[in-house]
């Protein structure tokens, strides 16, 4: 970029940096470069495929529930399923995930039940009390504010010499926040076992990437924090899995943090409360459908004879069944008495609030 | 027992907590080799190592957010914010995370952290170094806000804060960091949180304050005693949740109450106490509840700061007026 050139005046260059881009599968499912070793494992590839398809089915049902008044505002992953699934698939159970509110795919992979995710979006804290790894963080709604937590979690791992990794996920908008930079900077200083993943889906609600940053890549933001940032085709689940494996292994070995910029596209609205046609054209979205991750992986799998039409039909039925069963359990969740809003305020409820609790419960006059 | 200053008592409590519990970690700007700008952490890094006493980058939001992450892992972080005026970037972390991660996850994750910060004016510090915005913090559900007024209470309450399973903001009255001296036995014994301390008993008027203002409040009680007025002085000590029973019990006895705080008047914590008394002790009152507070101005820079803060005279005048009312 011409504007970034300065006259050198014979001044020496004291540092040079580079950012690499990772991609294996082209949008049509053909191969751009030799695949990583794990890709010969048909079971793993089909597991990634199943997880992405389940997520898409789940999203569709969640939106239907929202439209019919049975769920609150919901954030779909449409078009970016490969990011959360690819990342989570490379984590170990004992690692800690710090997700943003659009990372359902990672939670599901890590064992959170579908009905628990529905409970969260249905306005019930029990959704965060989930069946995933007990130290995983809940969805983070204030954008990017979970990044310092990830650094703190990773610091605890390092302090206790535990071979665990914190994985922090956020969107392109979050990279504009000081929280994210402050966390990355600290992680760089202490070479912490943490991987930062920015899902660059091009849009932060209505604000396009070009208004979010003047950088060519988000990955280069890691350079300022002293570690490697890699740009990955976030619609290629093979690339996401490979990048995550590499970054997580590096972090686990004590070689410090990594940053992954997953370049993808949000094919859906920001949430069910959003109408993306207010700020971007249907043509733009239509064009990006050609890159989406599920068709891409299916084309590859079918081409490799790893996946058949019969399997596809069976999977569709399984997804439908699993989602419907989860919805039934969600809708059948017993309501709670209102005074439970006091029960996890403190380890032990101070008397002054206990009086308010009694009032709410209808057996006090406070 | 050795006599120590308030800041030395803070240091003793930190060292004791670190000695007793390997999970306690101290972090902040300049807390390591420098021992903190007020020397509250002096000697800790040498004794406990740079992993447990770490100098963070100059980023307050980070310090508070790191505490949340560490605490979720069962580490017990004690973060230091160099001055209360630099605490504000931490508000997002305190409101959205520290105070509510227990509730958000229904007890799955908790936040046993302490955030320490110097509180108040009166040391002729530069701009932004003299804040007393404790009421802002006391408004946050799920948080504890604690402020000692003597070396003994600094030691005992800080130990309690560190051992508490929930997040505590621990405000340290800068003006009496060194001016307050007292005997402290480094015996590892904590004082109770959520409990007010009656520093002086009296039957005529209740004076309620916290932190450094107790110095003026106690002096006012002395002056009133010379006039034959027996003032009861309460150190609130924990502002959130505060000890309503002790406040109400005292007002039931005296029928008169003067609340003293350095912070600005409107929306100050004195209003909360006055409202409690109005709701629950109106029939005991012999005079309107009075507030002696900082004026509703920006805390002036060094040359005028003394004029903003409540003086002994203002407290005495308010107490006399209450006594003369009926």
Structure description:
The complex is a heterodimer of chains A (366) and B (326). By secondary structure, chain A is an alpha/beta fold. The radius of gyration of chain A is 22 Å and the shape is globular. In chain A, helix 9 (237-252) links the parallel strand 7 (228-233) and strand 8 (258-263). Chain A has helices at 42-67, 81-89, 104-109, 114-121, 147-159, 178-190, 209-212, 221-225, 237-252, 282-288, 293-303, 309-331, 351-361; strands at residues 20-22, 96-98, 166-171, 194-200, 203-204, 207-208, 228-233, 258-263. In chain A, the strands form 2 sheets. In chain A, strands 1-7-8-4-3-2 form a 6-stranded parallel beta sheet, with helices on both faces. In chain A, strands 5-6 form a two-stranded antiparallel ribbon. The model of chain A has no long low-confidence stretch (mean pLDDT 96). Chain A is built from 13 helices and 8 strands. In chain A, helix 1 (42-67) packs across helix 2 and helix 4 packs across helix 12. Chain B is α/β, with parallel strands linked by helices and 326 residues long. In chain B, 36% of the residues lie in helices and 20% in strands. Chain B contains 12 helices and 14 strands. Chain B has helices at 6-20, 44-48, 60-72, 91-98, 101-104, 134-138, 151-163, 213-226, 244-254, 269-280, 305-308, 312-325; strands at residues 3-5, 24-28, 53-55, 76-80, 114-119, 144-146, 168-173, 181-183, 197-200, 205-209, 231-235, 238-240, 257-264, 290-294. In chain B, the strands form 3 sheets. Chain B has a 7-stranded mixed beta sheet, sandwiched between helices. Chain B has a 5-stranded mixed beta sheet with strand order 9-11-10-13-14, sandwiched between helices. A two-stranded antiparallel ribbon of chain B has the order 1-8. Chain B is globular. Chain B starts with a strand and ends with a helix. Classes of the chains: A alpha/beta (366), B alpha/beta (326). The interface between A and B is large, with 42 and 45 residues.
